[in-house]
């Protein structure tokens, strides 16, 4: 685990976690799909914010006013980053609700793609959306065309889910955090790029997806 350094001026929130949340928000905002939920980071930041609020309530009236204002500003910044991170994830979840609902059903319990709260939201949103579509449209179609996931009951696969999937073949701005070296960008092996540490690139997300997940490349 990273060392927790206190931010300047002796504030209660930890610089490493606040900066990590800023980076998590940037990655999530730049990625066309939902990334793995930062469970430990969110938990730590919430605990620190709660402790900071409780400490602020116990401060003496003689406490330096400037210092208190700076602490409140620091708390507001952390709260903004946390809300922005969770909001962009909910936006993606709502946009691709059917796709992530199918993903959550097929993935293992150890997977950390969605938080428990996001999973509950996904289930409730899917139920409400499905009920609305069935009532307003699907119930008026022939029985073999009333499926949300298949074009017809004659289909062997849920071939409609790809329509709700995130578009991964899109270009993103990224920066390497380690020296990757020669990296194959396509399946044919014709497009190979030498990825050097701290260099900036514009690449297709699908080509570097594994590097993003392993934190060898940061989206910007």
UniProtKB/TrEMBL annotation:
Report the source organism: Rhynchospora breviuscula
- Source species, domain of life: Eukaryota
- Briefly state the protein's biological role: The GINS complex plays an essential role in the initiation of DNA replication.
What family does the database annotate?
Belongs to the GINS4/SLD5 family.
Stretches assigned to the DNA replication complex GINS protein SLD5 C-terminal domain: 166-220
Report any one BP term from Gene Ontology: DNA-templated DNA replication
Location comes to: Nucleus
Which Pfam families does this entry report, sorted A to Z? Sld5, SLD5_C
What GO cellular component is one of the record's annotations?
A: GINS complex
Ranges for domain GINS subunit come to 51-132
Name under which the protein is recorded: DNA replication complex GINS protein SLD5
Q: Kindly state which keywords UniProt assigns to this record, in alphabetical order.
A: DNA replication, Nucleus
Note the SUPFAM superfamilies from the entry. GINS helical bundle-like, PriA/YqbF domain
